[in-house]
Amino acid sequence: MRRKTAFRLLIIPALVFPIVGIFFMLWAWSSFDASDVRGDSIKFSFLAPDYLKSVKIIEKCSEPLFRWKGRDGEGSPFSSIRYGSFASPNQLAKYYTLELKKNGCKVAKLHTISHNDRAIDFICTNNQFHEIQIQFHEKNDCADVAIFFTEKD
């Protein structure tokens, strides 16, 4: 009897710990580099950076998709939000410019890529971000908006 009990005490942890370890590694990787995450997902609720959760989505006409990547030793951590908005690119640019100024960022460059495409680069003096870029693509009723955050190392 003792032999069976001792065997069970050894074999169960030997099987359970690797399985738990594998799940932990998969969870850690998914929280480190996440793409196309919906705002109503559990992954977003628990793993997204707080600043992504606080970005106001203005007059959405398509669901926001979020992306983030942590420090990997090769580049700065970054994140992004992509969504569609009923608001005009001018309204969006004014709103986000005012909000980013409150957080220590200033306009560095305005880009007019084409008649329908524009971008604004912001340089930040706060401790969290190096730069932020906002891109707008004007379409019929629903403008595409993309906000890219590059964190400081």
Mean pLDDT: 84
Query: For the record, what CATH class applies?
Result: Alpha Beta
CATH architecture, please? Answer: 3-Layer(aba) Sandwich
Q: Terminal Cα separation, in Å?
A: 58 Å
| Number of structurally distinct domains | 1
By CATH, the topology is Protein Transport Mog1p, Chain A
Descriptive key words:
single chain; 153 residues; alpha+beta; Protein Transport Mog1p, Chain A; 7-stranded antiparallel β-sheet; 4 helices; 7 strands
Detailed description of the structure:
This protein is an alpha+beta fold. The protein has a single domain (about 35-150), classed as Protein Transport Mog1p, Chain A, CATH 3.40.1000. Helix content is about 35%, strand content about 40%. It contains four helices and seven strands; from the N terminus they run αβααββαββββ. The protein has helices spanning about 1-30, 40-45, 50-55, 90-100; strands at about 35-40, 60-70, 80-85, 105-110, 115-125, 130-135, 145-150. A seven-stranded antiparallel beta sheet has the order 1-2-3-7-6-5-4. The longest helix has about 30 residues, at about 1-30. The mean pLDDT is about 85.
